[in-house]
Amino acid sequence: MVVNTDGIENDLTFSVSSELSKKNGEVPANVKKKVLTPRKIRILASVIYGNLFLGSCYSLMAPIFPAEAERKHASATAYGLVFGVYQLVMFLSAPVYGKLVVHLKPGFMMKIGMFVSGVCAITFGFLHHAPDADTFIGLAIAIRTIDALGASAFLTASYTTIGSELPEIIGRAMSLTETAFAFGLAGGPVLGGILYEESIKLINKFLFH
């Protein structure tokens, strides 16, 4: 009976060489190093920034919008729908973007999604010029719907990008992006309240003094 010891010898050789390499501060040749190139760092930074931006823009309106809607004599149900339609549209559009991302480049989808969300965030600030409650709520729902489409495109493409471009650190990258989004959700209302109060002070200063 012949026992094949080649595999055992290879394992022992690898173990010994690994231990020696660790002592010498070296990495074995057959162990893949997790090196982040400048390109991958830029990709990760872009995804983190995008999630931070989307999270803050989603929650930025929380301390401002209800008061403005009530000033227009809109009901709580009506402006509650403005908040809810965002997640509903993302829920419906994400599977569609999941199929489109195969045909479109993820980077292109991320850029378009971020651009659309940015334009919608700026446009939302002009809603107070709406003449009545129905127009106010209708425009708000329309803007939030388009905003959600842009956000969904970015998020879907960003997850695809992490999986394809950063497979070595996919767990860490996902945790960082989720942390950034959560930080945006938490900081958005505070930032929105500060901007709202400061804008009122500036308006009163330049118009009434």
UniProtKB/TrEMBL annotation:
InterPro entries attached here? MFS, MFS_dom, MFS_trans_sf, MFS_Vesicular_Transporter
TM segment ranges = 43-65, 77-100, 112-130, 136-155, 176-196
- Species annotation: Stegodyphus mimosarum (African social velvet spider)
- SUPFAM superfamilies assigned to the protein according to its UniProt record, in alphabetical order: MFS general substrate transporter
PROSITE patterns to which the protein is assigned, alphabetical: MFS
Asked if the Swiss-Prot or TrEMBL record annotates the protein with the keyword Hydrolase, the reply is no
Q: Which GO terms describe its molecular function?
A: transmembrane transporter activity
Q: Which PANTHER family match?
A: GH10249P, MFS-TYPE TRANSPORTER SLC18B1
Indicate the segments forming the Major facilitator superfamily (MFS) profile domain, all copies.
43-209
Q: What is the recorded membrane topology of this protein?
A: Multi-pass membrane protein
Q: List GO terms (cellular component aspect).
A: membrane
Q: Which domain of life is it from?
A: Eukaryota
Location of the protein in the cell = Membrane
- Its protein name is MFS-type transporter
Keyword field: Membrane, Transmembrane, Transmembrane helix, Transport
Record flagged with keyword Metal-binding: no
